[in-house]
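>> received
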Amino acid sequence: MRFLSCSPSTSAPTSAGTLADINRIEITDPDDTRIEVFQGLRDHVLRRERELPGGDMAGFFIAEGDIVVERALRAGYQLESMLVDGARTKPLPEPIPGDVPLFACGPQVLIHVTGYHLHRGVLACFRRRPLLDLHQALTGVRTAVVLENINNPTNLGVILRCAAALDVDAFVMDKSCCDPLYRRCGRVSMGEAYSTPYARLGPFPEDLAQLSRRGFRLLALTPDPHAVDIGDLMLSDDEPVGILLGSEGPGLSTATLDAADDRLRIPMSGEVDSINVGSAAAVAFYAVQQARTRR
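>> returned
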């Protein structure tokens, strides 16, 4: 695959973010090789494969929407190129280097690339950063969310947005979790996760021992009626905790539950036995906040 040059930008960021400040390039051919980096967005499975290690898009990710793009910029990700509706007049997200290519596309090109009109929106290609190791991700962290087999990008996006809003300092994933920089995940999280440190671990429960050795108390969320009511949780203000969440449906594996220090449940009313993992995450993060203040 051919990509536009992705050499680091040396220009200072623009202050206005207007279309006049940007290196605007008109695109009229849907197969123009200059926008190859944005092709394939309509096939979600293929696109995710392209961005995996070994794929032709490895090392890059796509952000969608003004707020999401702006948060990626402010988190320090290097912007490579942007694609917009050619009829857009609204100022662009800031701060944008002045020499970054801005591909201004007509309706046919937009439909071919994305499957819909962008409605004056924006797509942006960013360069990924090296993945942090566990030490880097957890240094100074008091509350982390630890994820097992969260492979739905919508659920992951909800979890990460809640984490950013409710005092979660970092997140850790096993290798089966989906990509937190995948476009849909970034859109659902509103780009909140871009500034949150994260790392990947090997198989659970073996690699959970790395958190325990760092002094983290592992709190496993489960619908098990014999688990402790999460409202009864007590924590000291400086006690580091890892909140374990499993995939929609199966939840955490039995081995991972056995490796946890505590099993916690959210009490349910009526005949409901569980709630969506994103909703459960929000309740758990808030409960940890409250558990720290009650001591």
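>> The chain has two domains: 19-127, 134-293.
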